Amino acid sequence: MEEKNKSIGKAVNRIDGILKITGKATYATDYPIKNMAFAVIFKSTIASGTIVNLDTTSAEQANGVLAVITHKNAPRLNEKGGIRGGALLQSPEILFYGQHIGVVVAETFEQARHAAHLIKVDYQKKEGKTDFEKLATSAGAPRGKELADLIRGDALGMLDTSAVKLEEVYETPIEHHHPMEPHSTIAVWEGDKVVLYNGSQIINGAQAAAAETLNLKPEQVRIVSPFIGGGFGSKGGQWANLILTAVAAKVVSRPVKLALTRQQMFNSVGLRQQNIQRISLGASKDGKLISLVHETTTQTAIDSEFLEPCGDCSKVMYEVPNALISYKVAPMHMMLPTYTRGPGKSTGSFALESAMDELAYKLQMDPIELRIKNEPQKDPSNGKPWSSRKTVECLREGAKAFGWANRKVVPGSNRVGDDLIGYGVACGTYPARQRDSSAVIKLTKSGENVFAIVEIAASDLGTGTNTILAQTAADGLGIPLVHVTVKLGDSDLPPAAGSVGSVGAASFANAVNDACTKITDELLARSAKQFFIRPTAYQLIVSENIKNYQTRVDAKAPKEAEQYSAHSFNANFAEVRVNALTGMVKVTRFLAVTGAGKILNPKTARSQIIGGNVWGIGMALSEESVMDPRWGNFATRSFGDYHVPANLDVGKLDAIFINEEDKIPNKMGVKGIGEVGIVGVAAAIANAIFNATGKRIRKLPITPDKLI
User: Which of 8, 225, 428, 665 has the fewest CB atoms inside 10 Å of its own CB, making it the most exposed?
Assistant: First the structure.
């Protein structure tokens, strides 16, 4: 195919865009299943204790009620089946406020909701561990070995002898994912098999977890999830609501729909936990880093451990001969935390990149030059060579495009009227990986046209997976983009990795590309003709007059990829205006410069980056889930008090991609961008606020009360 006709690298509109804007895209609860019943979950109102009496009589007698399911009558489930957060109605024990304690199933949603309010619960309450500020002082080592201390050299000893030292504490609050589409499921039993229409970032993972928990075989569970209204990690693992929908449908012997309310989302499907990070940096007078200590104290559930790896950026961002990265954890009566966009890297980069800015100010160095001075030639954490690293290019190109030279060095010196103006910069990174994925391509000849169907159990969170896979197939087969149909989001399709951890695009696209290569090779082997230039699959189908042909490929990452350290890297530039009278902050400009390998579609890639930037703005300025330690519940439990950025909160956003060819992580040279888009954003904004005001705020979010 001629270069001008290729799809990859072009800003192609989403092929599913029309379905979405016309309301024809089928999300989890959009399926018009006949004879549908509706379920509503009811929850605990204590954080710790035991249910001693649960009176469901009035609810069971209410109009339209088909069943009330509690720990008294729920079927026995496998609690070790992979469902996160417990709450499967297997015990009267309460481990966190808002734990599921029952499900009402009725003819209508309104009837189920009304009946849920009629249930009376008596508890034997126990004192709960709900105050992180108190528990943090006695936090212990994590149980998981993956977050054992990383020790390189003598970080503490060299810190004491460093010419310039910085020792500060940075705090990030609990955050919630809050995708546009709340978690919801329709369950339909077909004999001993169940179909679950559900938003799942990992289709086959959801299938396996549901099957194990329900004591079924994987082939007895089908997950259908062609469209997902966002997830940000919360739909990466599956939670009890998925299983309880299947249980409810089994109990009433008819299809059941269960959709969590926005308020229920706060204690049903995970969260980003609160982190206290102590950063200590030691440097020479000319700005060369000598020592780095990054100590994280965090929280987790009382019965299960999940920790954000806040030290990940500190492992790899800068050349430091002496480093100590450690974790302490405080178990609490709270919902189990989980992966949240840029897990560990977004929160950890706030601490690290704020500290680097503070060190630059102490040294009277430009913060960009300090970062470049400490650029590592190989991965400091493991000694592996980089597959590629574009941090310096991101900083240099970003500085020119942003107008960094116009930055006033003296904080608080750039004022227009009542507004103080400041510039900030911060870097970020996220690993680039390919995971095992399979794909089937089916070709059909109709006249002189060849049509392709791509089948893969991938997921599309709204990131553009459908489109980039169609582009990949079109180029790989030599056919027009409009002749490609993509089928994904169904566990009946060939298994694939998930849309998590920035592995989706690399894993899915390489599988489809490998399938295109394989089908072309197979058609070429069948042909009796000789070709001096390798033909396309389209040319072979037409020349051999083949009506139908298909093949499957099981794609894996190149073995040599393990010998390298592969990451996406970025540099973030923020301009803020801070009103000197009110303390209100406005991010007037934000520029993200990213080195992320081959960009399959600049339009959807830009959307991913600026989406991460917007969440980073919320992280920096407004987002905070506040737990009331007296009860263990959230005082913030709606969008009325959990503040996400609206259009007027966001200024001009720009995204630049650095040209980068890196085919070590995978054949196509694709690196992830979904996660890295949020990494470093909050720090860039915090650093800009310091440049504007001279006030260093180390605890997020940076609200007006902290500035006036």
Answer: 8
Q: Given the structure tokens 């469901």, which residue do they identify? A: 56
Q: What CATH number is associated with residue 603?
A: 3.30.365.10
With both helix axes pointing from N to C terminus, report the angle between 681-693 and 345-363 in degrees, rounded to the nearest 10. Answer: 30
> What one-character DSSP code corresponds to residue 535?
P
- Active-site residue 675, yes or no? yes
Same domain, 647 and 571: yes
**How many whole angstroms separate alpha carbon 336 and alpha carbon 329?**
13
Q: CA 699 to CA 620: how far, in whole Å?
A: 9
Shared domain for 69 and 195, answered yes or no, is yes
DSSP three-state, residue 695: coil
Asked if 427 and 574 sit in the same domain, the reply is yes
Residues pairing with 221 in the sheet: 194
Do 408 and 552 reside in the same domain of the chain?
A: no
- In angstroms, the CA 461 to CA 440 distance is 21
- Whether the per-residue pLDDT at 1 is higher than 80: the answer is no
DSSP state letter for 411: T
- Do 68 and 215 fall within a single domain? yes
> Cβ(488)–Cβ(499) under 8 Å?
no
A 10 A CB-CB count for 679 gives 33
Owning domain of residue 502: 434-556
- Whether 671 and 594 have beta carbons less than 8 Å apart is answered as no
Q: Which residues pair with 388 in a beta bridge?
A: 566
4 found inside a domain? no
* Cis? peptide before 701, omega within 30° of 0: yes
Side chain identity at residue 375, one-letter code: E
Q: Are residues 497 and 578 in the same domain?
A: no
User: Exactly one of 175, 455, 623, 675 is catalytic; which is it?
Assistant: 675
Tokens coding 626:
């506040």
Q: For 141-192, how does the pLDDT look when each residue is reduced to its tens digit (9 = 90+)?
A: 998 777 888 999 999 999 999 999 999 999 999 999 999 999 999 999 999 9
Burial of 137 (0-12, 13-18, 19+ CB in 10 A): exposed
Please choose, from the candidates 501, 502, 488, the residue with its C-alpha nearest in 3D space to the C-alpha of residue 457: 488
Tell whether 467 is covered by a domain: yes
Q: How many CA atoms lie within 13 A of 538 on its CB side?
A: 18
- Same structural domain for residues 587 and 665? yes
Show the tokens assigned to 446: 């109709």
Q: Same domain, yes or no, for 204 and 61?
A: yes
Query: Do 427 and 697 form a contact (C-beta atoms < 8 A)?
Result: no
Q: Mind listing the pLDDT tens digit for each residue in 568-613? A: 999 999 999 999 999 999 999 999 999 999 999 999 999 999 999 9
Rounded Cα gap, residues 679 and 571, in angstroms? 9
